[in-house]
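FAQ: What does the model actually see?

It sees only this:
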Amino acid sequence: MNFSAEVKRELVKEKLKSPCCKRAALSAFLRTAGTIETYKGKVGFSASADDDILEYFGAIIKSLYGGAVEIKSDKGEKRKRLRFIGDEALNALIDCEILKTEQSGLDIIFGVSKYIVEDDCCKRAFVTGAFLGSGSVTVPSFTGGSKTGYHLEFTFNMYQVSADFSDILCALGFTPKSVERKDSFVVYFKSSEEIADVLTVMGAKKASLALTDLIIKKGVMNNTNRALNCEMSNITKSVEASVKIREAIALIESVASLSSLPPKLREVAEARTEDPEASLSELADKLGITKSCLCHRLDKIKKIAESL
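And it is asked to produce this:
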């Protein structure tokens, strides 16, 4: 089960109690996963999703509007579809501020009504409903297998709904980003910390804690890797420097002999030749000089070799 599925599974277990929040969640779900339908002159709607999500919203519909909610697979479809047709369904669409009655008949409301998300609890429920309808969240694996990084998104088929949804998130203290993708409008987050907070607001507290734990562990692992990389880099540099000074000493020995060097430099060259594996600190201690003094003398030896 991927992380999105885990979040949705947790959300449908958290039952909404307030009728206003149930209405907000249903309105968002229909805005993202629903389709308005007519059958034998009756208006209603259908939506396709995973079974547990359809059962979740089926229970909300029954508690708010009554009527017969049908959940079954259409011919040729693998996923089940929730279908609600009739007077109760029309009342639901009007109550959820998706349709409105005009003198000329019914008309579609293209944005999110402020009455649907008047209270903060309803704003949170609307975000939950939108995620259950079209949301997805991806996180990198602990082993670093995923290249996507942290990403949470909600997809809408109408620009105004996506813009109003961004305003709802802003009112809850978030800073979402938006992008148009083909025929869809996407509201998304990339910040791992903000994604964890959005999960908490929706009611997916376990998923939020799991994500926070992953963020911390990956931070520790990244710091450890950086330290190891730095250490390996230092070791590589030390080895390369040691090889170069040994080559310089060998060149001087073959061309002019070490006896041609000044006494202090000759002492260093002979000590390095006798103990090629010693670290600079160990070599400096052996000669009774400081490490910086040793490095200075080694640099002089390399320059003499370069002049030969």
